[in-house]
Amino acid sequence: MDQRGSPPSDNGDYNQTENSVKIIANSDNKQRDKTSDYISFNDIPSEPEIDEIDRLMEQQVKTDLVAPIAAQFLKVQDQSNSPTRHYQGKEITIDYDGHHLTIKNNQDNSIKMKARFVGVNPASKKSQWLSELPENSPGLRDADVQKWTSEAVKNYIKQKQFEQETKQKSRIAKSIT
To answer: Where does the record place the region Disordered (predicted)?
Structure first.
């Protein structure tokens, strides 16, 4: 053993360096020991990077809650058959450009949410959205999430969907007679 506390390997190299930490992965209760499991201390994020990662993760959680509801809201507000949709309210603007669903604050034009549809979760049958919030955007606040997930918004969407279905059935009935 040398002063680093690690025995040399068969080729004479030491298993640890001053700038790395060995990670032992445990897969299927079998430990494996590979040199590829080393992570350099240089690769460990600094505190500001960790704060940014935490912020992005928090925005992803908020996007998971808000995006499906905002998409439904946009569908009932903009009933066009266009692949792009738009809604402009007093406080916010919602756009879907065929790729991204964006919620903007009308006061300062800042982006509260930008998300890309990635599919439907087969287990939960819910749509999944990936947050792609631009740098320096404030993102969704807790109050935004509370507003979007409120029963009032959900009931409004259900009411609009019911009205649209009723109109469509009425049109179909009139066209048959």
So the answer is: 1-45
